[in-house]
Amino acid sequence: MSSLSLAVRDSSTMLRRNLLHARRYPSLTLNLLLTPIMLLLLFVYIFGDTMSAGIGGGGGPDRSAYIAYLVPGLLLMTIGSTTIGTAVSVSNDMTEGIIARFRTMAIHRPSVLIGHVVGSVLQSVMSVILMGAVAVAIGFRSTDATGLEWLAAFGLLVLFAVALTWIAVGMGLISPNAEAASNNALPLIFLPLISSAFVPVDSMPGWFQPIAEYQPFTPAIETLRGLLLGTEIGHNGWLALAWCLGLAVLGYFWSTAKFNSDPK
């Protein structure tokens, strides 16, 4: 069997293993997914009129406009929430001894991490679809987006999921237990809260605006808004792409280096 065939076979096996784990223990994924869904319902139905009136510049409350504003940011927050489960799963594998057993077997070594990454990206996509369904059910519409823009938006979401998943894998590898892995991955949920997901960056205090603007979530959110709602994208498209590629490469090399050097 060629090296490529071996890698594909073993990666597929590890992917099936991780999907089976997710199916048998869905509580972690569901708990993480409920956070952005609850935020969506909270900000729409409790804060929606007040927030939309503020964003609209005094033009009166418009809850439907605020739903459209919220959804792109919460779709990306959903990805960040889902990947926390990846950090916990990787940490469990490293501390429960299964990795040591895999290392005694004639398998393609990177397939263990690849299985986690592909499985997490699939879960992120399904979580995004569920979040999108909830958003549509409460009034979100994207009537002006073309088929190409929808495809680009989906591609951005998948690329963002790949990037955050590799970072989450690295966080899981450096964590001594599942609790530490969950805590280490908390920035993946915290960063969207200080981005343009809920309010425009220019409405924040001047000293805080650079923090919100120069982080990976804000350009990705603005790019997704532009694709789905027709707002101006500007330089955010290139910044989002650069962040995704940079985080994916960083996470890949960090994770593989840590995995190959770990004595456990």
Number of strands: 0
Largest sheet: none
Radius of gyration: 19 Å
Shape: elongated
Strand residues, percent:
under 5%
Tally of separate helices: 12
Question: How far do the termini sit from each other?
Answer: 28 Å
Q: What is the helix fraction of residues, given as a range?
A: over 70%
Average pLDDT, all residues: 85
pLDDT < 50 runs, ≥5 residues: none
- Oligomeric state of the chains in view: single chain
The assigned structural class equals mainly alpha
How would you describe the overall organization of this protein?
With 264 residues, the protein is mainly α. The chain has twelve helices and no strands. The chain has helices at 3-24, 27-45, 48-55, 63-95, 98-102, 111-137, 147-174, 178-184, 187-193, 209-213, 217-229, 236-261. Helix 3 crosses helix 4, helix 7 packs parallel to helix 12 and helix 11 (217-229) crosses helix 12. The longest helix is centred in the N-terminal third of the chain and has 33 residues, at 63-95.
